[in-house]
UniProtKB/TrEMBL annotation:
Domain XdhC Rossmann: 136-278
Pfam family, one: XdhC_C
Protein name: XdhC family protein
Organism phylogeny: Bacteria, Bacillati, Actinomycetota, Actinomycetes, Pseudonocardiales
Residue span, XdhC- CoxI domain: 13-74
Length: 324
């Protein structure tokens, strides 16, 4: 729901449906949300299309009655086109009206505050924890950086582009970035907050920029540290980093040359390659074609690397657990 916060706050009333439980295979995870606005407009999704029409009708009902509804949807053996999940799983969806408390929580989440909110329906209590979006720090104000910033923002990152050259580091060149900083990359990184969800992407191709910032980045417990460049550049970079005192253990964390092997060449294609590696690392993916695999398509995210910025919605019976 937090992903829809800005749009929800712009409406004078709305009904929002949230996935609160998933059993088996389902196209959207727990926490996925769809909302219906005052004029019947729709944003978001709870199933990727399987049950959207039925949930829309429930949302219109809740918008009219203000009474929350908890509904279950599952696969129908009679017809694949019946209301249900043709992928074979089932899910529970909570549909509720807007309220002052919900609006206050959405406003706090937009401001970047971590919080948990409580919902109640049919004798059950739910809590949803909203964490700040993960940061992506892009060093190097080149054309590739604009493409990386755009796709990273689409994926839910809070994007900062940093470069020491003011003629290149301008907001006009990077409209998708949340902020554009003119500073030496290593100095900015040393002075800014990072955590285990922060990703660093180095695009500078210039040792006087990328070596100091990579030394700083590899000394921190970041989710991802990657650098763009050819294999020759990578080998030369490793030698320079060793000379700077970076240990082999730290060097093993450097993802360089950065990106998955997609064969792309343009800045946009390169950005897709980098984004694909970020997503694969976050969720423990292999990067292989799904058609070559027999493992489940949807898997539980790893707990040791890059926790997802998505919501975690926990259903409780007769009790309430909150976290911040």
């Amino acid at each position: 729901m937090r992903d829809l916060a800005s749009a929800l706050l712009s409406w004078d009333r709305f009904a929002v449906a949230s996935v609160v439980a998933v059993r088996g295979s389902a196209p959207r995870p727990v926490g996925a949300a769809m909302a219906v606005g005052p004029s019947g407009e729709v944003i978001g999704s709870v199933s990727g299309g399987c049950v959207e029409a039925e949930v829309y009708d429930l949302a219109c009902q809740v918008l009219s009655t203000s009474e929350p509804v908890l509904a279950s949807f599952g696969y129908s053996d009679d017809t694949a086109f019946a209301v249900g999940l043709t992928c074979g799983g089932s899910l529970d969806v909570l549909v509720q009206r807007d309220s002052p408390a919900l609006r206050a929580a959405l406003s706090a989440s937009v401001a970047g505050h971590p919080l948990s909110v409580r919902f109640e329906a049919e004798g059950r209590v739910f809590t949803e924890s909203w964490m700040p979006p993960p940061r992506l720090l892009v060093f190097g104000a080149i054309d590739h950086a604009a493409a990386v910033a755009e796709i990273a923002r689409f994926l839910g990152y809070h994007v900062t582009v940093c470069d020491a050259r003011p003629v290149f580091a301008t907001p006009e060149r990077f409209p998708a970035a949340h902020s554009v900083v003119v500073d030496w990359p290593h100095r900015y990184l040393a002075s800014t907050h990072t955590d285990a969800d922060t990703a660093v992407v180095v695009l500078t191709h210039d040792p006087k920029f990328d070596i100091p910032v990579l030394v700083e980045a590899l000394s921190r417990p970041l989710a991802f540290v990657g650098a763009l460049g050819s294999r020759r550049t990578h080998l030369e970079r490793l030698d320079r980093l060793r000379e700077a005192g970076v240990t082999e253990t730290a060097l093993a964390r450097l993802r360089s040359p950065m990106g998955l092997d997609l064969g792309g060449r343009t800045p946009a294609e390169t950005a897709v390659s980098i984004a694909a590696e970020l997503v694969a690392l976050r969720h423990g993916g292999t990067g292989l074609p799904l058609s070559d695999l027999t493992t489940p398509i949807h898997r539980s995210p790893p707990t040791s690397i890059h926790r997802s910025p998505a919501r975690f919605l926990l259903a409780q019976r007769n009790s309430l657990t909150t976290s911040s």
